[in-house]
Amino acid sequence: MSPVNRRLFSVVGVLTLVAMSLLACAAETVIHERASGSGTIIVTESTDGLRTLLFERGGARQSIVKPGDPDHLELQYARVAMVGLALCEGPRRILVVGLGGGTLPSFLRKHYPEAWIDAVEIDAEVVDVAKKFFGFREDARMRAHVDDGRRFIENIRRPTYDAIFLDAFGGDSVPLHLTTREFLRAVRRALMPSGVVIGNIWDRPSNRLYDSMVRTYQEEFDELFILDVFNDINKILLALPRKQPLSQSELALLARRVSSDGKFRFDLGDLVDYGFLHAREKNRNGRVLRD
Question: Total structural domains in the chain?
Answer without folding.
Answer: 1
